[in-house]
Amino acid sequence: MQELKKLLRLAGPILVAQLSFTAMSLVDTLVAGRYGSDDLAGVAIGGSFWLPALMFTQAVLYSVTPFVAQALGRGDDRARGHYLRQGIWLGAIVGSLVWLIVFNLGDIGLAQIGSMPHIEQIAGDYLFWIILSLPVAGAYQAIRSFVEGSGRTRPVMFVNLTGLILNIPLNYIFVFGEFGAPEMGGAGCGLATGLVLLYMLMAMVCYLRFGAVRAAASRKDWLPSLRTFLQLGRIGLPIGLTIVAEVSIFAVLALIIAPLGADVIAGHQVALSMTSQTFMLPMSVSLALTVRVGYFHGAGDWQGMMRAIKAGYLLGIGGGLMTAILLYFGANVLTGFYTDNPRVHEVAVAILFLPVLYQIPDAIQVCSAGILRGLKITRTPMLAVLIAYWGIALPIGYTLGRTDWLIEPMGARGLWLGLVIGLTLAAIFLVTITWVSLRRVRRRLEAVV
Description:
The chain is mostly helical. It has 16 helices and no strands.
């Protein structure tokens, strides 16, 4: 029970921080929509390039958390500070490299979409301004991972919440040209979000200087270390690739669904938006588990680690059960907040009964991934997720949704049923990997004793 309370104290602020960060995209969408439908379309298209780039950059820097948590468990403040500074370097470098790729290939990608030229221009301008903040986002994520790995999650929650609040007036200022600012339309959303990310980085730097972690953060060895970059990269790159695989499969699903008509696409998008929000709950537990498992692993405390793992699974499964009940009984009401189109509403509700089936398996697999990150094991989970999503979920979903090879085509529901199967298998794969890995960790810890 004590460990469950500690996990809740970590996971609660992480959940608020995650929701605040994702809500910034919602603010962009709402403000751009107020300005004009073309700008809304441009921001949506630009966001389809921005979000994968941002998520990859952030995911690579998740690797800082287990190194810092294990160092905290050992009582090694010098190592914690070292991983912080090297993480900031790595975050800026990874963010710059991803910026370079998107900057050079973004126009080519936008041209392939085949949208109207003026919408393509808005998307390009939005993307230009927002990707300038990728190095900033990388450095911010490194500091965030350090702070959370040190067991401090409330400062991140505060910074993200204030960033969300700041994003609202900045959007209006740059989109509509208020207070002497240029009227940028949808592109102003990109500039506003970039400035908010800069604020968030500066706020986290201030916390490093004056907050509870200042003792570990105050060392002066700022020289970059290739060895540490490789250590962090070996853990972080598979996490980043896993995130890209997860994001891209939903993009592919949208392309497969596209010929089924605008109402089906819209219904799919509504269901995807809702399930993305419910996913934040188990994801927050997963991030908290990484901190606790890493801490106990660094301390060599097997019993403490098992208490954290049991509490994490209990919390994750409980959260998955809650979101399943919410989606099952609240699908009609919740969908009404997104659309008043009867056909879109009907499609979304029909789809949403399928995610109900994978809420608990999804919670189990994401909690297992958090445990494995705490042990600094990421390559095998990446392969398991790739197989489950791309090797199983997508082929089965396509077969059920778009062909008559087995049964009459099920449309979008068939594709989502493929996801249910894939996520359930991912949970089985990752639980198995976790069990095998924990046996090895136990033998290693007992050998040390």
